Amino acid sequence: MVKDKKKSVKFDLPSKTTTSRTMDEELESDEDFLPDNENIISASEDEDASGDERKHTKLLEAISSLGGKRRKKLAERSEASLQVSEFAVNAEGAGEKVVLSDLLSSATEASRTDGSLTKTQKQLKNLEKLHATLELPLSHQQTEKIQREAAFQKASKEVSRWESTIILQQRAEQLVFPLNQQPNRPRRMEQVVTSWKTQTPLEQEVFAVLHAHRQPTLDPVLTPVEEAQLQAMSLEEAQLRRAELQKARALQSYYESKAKRERKIKSKKYHKVQQKAKRKAFLKQFEEMCKSDPERAMEELQKMEKNRIEERMSLKHQNSGKWAKSKAIMAKYDLGARQDMQEQLELNRQLTHKPLPSTELHGDSDHDDDNNDPTLTNDDQTLPDIANDASANQKEGANPWMKMTAVMPTAMEAEPKSIVVTTDSEPTEVAASGGGEGDAETEETEEERLLGEFARRRQLRKTNEEEEEVDEEARQKDEETSQAAGGPSISFTIAETSEEEEEEEDQMDEAAASELNALFGRLAKQGQQDAAPLATVGVASMDTLLDEDTTRVRTLEETELLTETHSDTAPMVESEAVAASGHGNKHAPKVKRRQKIIDLEQVLTKQAKSIRVPMTAPAVEDAEDEALDEQTDVIREAFAGDDVVSDFLKEKRKQEEASKPKDVDLTLPGWGQWGGLGVPVKKHKRRRFLKKAPPSVPRKDRKLPAVIISEKRDSSVAAHQVSQLPFPFENPGQFERSIRSPLGSTWNPELAVRKLTAPRIVTKAGAIIQPLSKDDVMSSKKTPGKRGAPDLLLANVEQGKAGHRPTAKRKKHKK
Amino acid sequence: MKVKVLSRNPDDYVRETTRDIHRVPRNYDPTLHPFEVPREYTRALNATKLERVFAKPFVGSLDGHRDGINCMAKHSKSLSILLSGACDGEVKLWNLPKRECFRTVQAHEGFVRGIVTRFCGTSFFTVGDDKTIKQWKMEPPGYGEQEEPLNTILGKAVFTGIDHHQIGETFATCGQTVDIWDEQRTSPIRSFSWGVDSFSCVRYNPVETELLASCASDRSVVLYDMREATPLKKVIMKLRSNTLCWNPMEAYYFTSSNEDYNLYTYDMRYLDNPVTVHMDHVSAVLDVDYSPTGREFVSASFDKSVRIFPKDGGHSREVYHTKRMQHVICVRWSADNKYILSGSDEMNIRMWKANASEKLGVLTPREKTTRDYNQKLREKFQHHPHIRRIARHRHLPHDIYKQRREQREMRDARRRKELNVRKHSKPGSVPVETEKEKHVVTVVE
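YS: structure for the whole thing
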């Protein structure tokens, strides 16, 4: 209702006022000019139609004049300004107030049509409708609580600024109190100067000039330019440089003259040796390069390859030249000519030899040798053929696939041929060895062949140079060295078998194990059995079973050789196998290892081929309950891959070894004689001061194969030993290291001792230590900055610019 | 042809002056100096033993008071002056090097509750049981002058403690409220109260100088900011704290001495748990003061002993006691980090060395190096049982020893009981409470 009324008021207001006003005026005029009106009417009285109208109006006037009230009202005068404001806002009466929405009426007609305006009007009205009261202020307690909380937050934030300082102090190696000691010695000139600020324009000008020349104010009195000049002119440096240049020049001339001299030497042998050395050096270099700089090595390799191809294209060293032909004629009668030709061929072979990839190199090298052997021995019979033969063979050798096919027959034939060859080429040796029976002879020849093979392999491993030797000489040498080579090869096997020995002993332990440890023992055994066939196949992954020579097992003989060595690893299995197969073998299971090793014949005889068996029977089935088996299976599954048992046994053996008392050498260096580096202690002295170890006390765990009882603890020393790892250390190693490094001046030089023994806190006698203050810390934080910008002018400029410095700087000052 | 001759450079063996020490060429080849660890171990052992032999911390006592000493204050500018207030209202100023009293002031009637020197060192303030705060000149009055205070402020209630701002001209007192005073005015410029009827101690933070902390009788420690109208926070503990002391080097740490025989170091930002609980006393701890380096603090206890704790160590590194020393009421660490002063019930002030085995006086360089080396050796081998046992051995009076054992038994019994309760109740219903958590009741914001 109210709203409607107001609305109507609002919209009608102007119009109403106007109408009322016009009415008033009209009325007034009516009153004033009534006679005039009558005159007018009378003038138009003539017409009839108009006469009616006049009557009607007259009547109306009469009626209107009846109400005296109006007349009275008309006489009233009103103050227009009260109701009509200059903003066209008006309340209805003098008592009414202007409402908020009234204000909007002053807006123009155009804006009134806008949607936004009406929207705000609506909002305003809604606001007016709301009659919510203000909330009561919070209770005193609560406001205080909020204030407290805010204050606390502020304080704790403020205090937290010290965190970095505190942490720094806590971590400091050394703290000297009082913290901000002013050095009481006189300050240096530069320090005084830097704190001085320019003031007058003249001073500023002077400093500007100085700054332009970058005149430093601190220690160095020279400008950078001057310094650079000085550096450039440094006499010692120049002298050094000159001396270096002189030396280089001299070295160059020496080298040149040497080269000239060498070029003039006519001796072929000299050049040959020289070249050989060069090649050797190059090879070495190349190997190193392979490791260090593979890219360059690759380039070199390509270069070599190119050389090889060129060599293959050319007819050089192919015994097709004039010289070769003449030699070929002579060859039949002249051993030297034959050798020369051979040399040529060898050279050719080397130069055209394609280097195999490293993986194949080892595997195939022996085949190569096998290959070469018969062919080379054939050389003796027919020379011209050989040349082609050799080259052809060589080509095959280059191709591993082709070689494979070539190898097989040769290998098969190897035996008889080799016999023939040996008898042919070395009649003296054969005569020496051939005195025995037929059986022995064959054995021997076989042995020889094998040894030769060993030796050749070994040789191959060394370098190519030995390949260069002509075959006959090489063979002779081979045969000779092979006899000697038995030594190292044997020692090798010893080294190899020492580990195996251990394992065997482990097994012996197992045999002695009680029922409780049956599981362990069986597991271990099975592990061994698993390992054995693997080894024979040659896929074994365990390092103990890995074979040192990398021959591929292709021929029977080779497998025999392998198994011969591997049979040592599983003697138990072997013995069982032997028993099963019913072989009346020489190999008793308990034969001493040493004997086996030294007795070459035993190693190499054919009888020792009983090792195929373990491949067929991998496990020894015991008549045990299946539950146990299951358990072992489970355990084995859990520990698949890592051989826990053998590791444990090894560990135990190691501990046993370690716990055995050892002889103590009490000789002191330099006691009673001269001491020092390289001066050996005399033998009789050593013997005198060598304290023999007492016989070892039997270990507590000697009958418990699955237990290690440490007997290290010595109660008399325990008082001096740390039982627990102390706090700041993370592992025993760390702690031990800290203990091991000595601090004293007996072991460390003076300065190091001073540094090592520096106390953590140093206080000055008689000085009051003030609590940390803001000024100290902030000033100390600022000082490095100052040191960074020691330039006078900069400071000056800063001062000048202080007006428009960025806020960050000002903040710093505030702090 | 080159001729080789033996040649020696005199610089290598000739001294520059006759007062110089002889040059000893040394060969550091380890083979020539074997057994470095055992040798150093022996040295460390000897050093530890000697340290114990020379551990004679008692320097002297200052007697002259006619009643128990209730409060002490260090002079802020001079190391040689100590102020002490006794229970009979007497204040004495002591010359420490001479160990004599050079001035006596009858400052109050009844106890002198608190005493503090102004930061400039020219005057000092005392509060007493007669409800007055008095400011005194440091210099004794001239000939014929009366001993009179510079200013006297009469308060409405008894003041129990006083502390002065580090650099400003304001000081704080505590009694029924904690009041902040301007030196120039006779009425406090601010007074804080938070539903407590009395406070026992108020201390300014020496680093963040606008902060204060106080111990209240409602077992709480309350923090204030001088600039704020309200206190900041308070932590209520199981038993009442007697005094507290801010760490002078680490702005947000303070340590409070508690009635429950322990001391608690708090980080003022995290009052929920103390950072460290320092236990070893066998009776209420009455006073605590930090060393000026902020690394250690000293505590005085009702059990007639003074203990020194590392600031982050749970147990004391040193305990001082004498036969005649009674309940120690107040303790201060001298500003040069060398001495500890303890005032006790039996009217004596005692002076102790902060480092028991330290040699007093000037040390020669060789003595210094030996001291440093021995110190490092002891540190290096401190975990070895033999050395540790020697280094940690202390003689205790029979009473303390007995009580210690007793308390240990009690603690064990309590722990055992708790374990048993936990064992026989529903899992999780008896939570494990760490030592730090045990002593805080609540934090009020």
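YS: worth flagging: Chain A touches chain B through 59 residues (CB under 8 Å).
IM: good catch. Also Chain A has a mean pLDDT of 65.
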